[in-house]
Amino acid sequence: MIDSLKLFETLKSGDLAESQARAIVQAIGSAFDDNELRQSKVLAAKVDTARLDVEVQQLETSLTEDISALRIELVAEMRAMRAELKADMVQLESRLEAKIAESKTAMIRSMFIFWIGQVAAMRLLR
To answer: Could you tell me which of 30, 39, 37, 34 has the C-alpha nearest to residue 4?
Structure first.
């Protein structure tokens, strides 16, 4: 900050009219005020940027933690689904084996009845 009164006195003592000295002091004061305003805006913007950087960093950390937790849940869920699928496949395999065994039994029974009928028919025809 400049001392306006001292500057005014210096300019006035250097062969400048009072009105000219006053105009120069006001121009310089206005320039300093404008500069201080710009600097305060820049400083405020830097503070806001720093605050935003911290918030973004916190958000990134939070998102990273959330993604990690979701990965863990997803892996656990996939393992559970695999186990459930394996159990279902074992159960399905058992049912298929039982159905195939029933079909074999029914087919052998049918063939046995067919051949007994054939033998009986041939005996009757002789």
So the answer is: 30
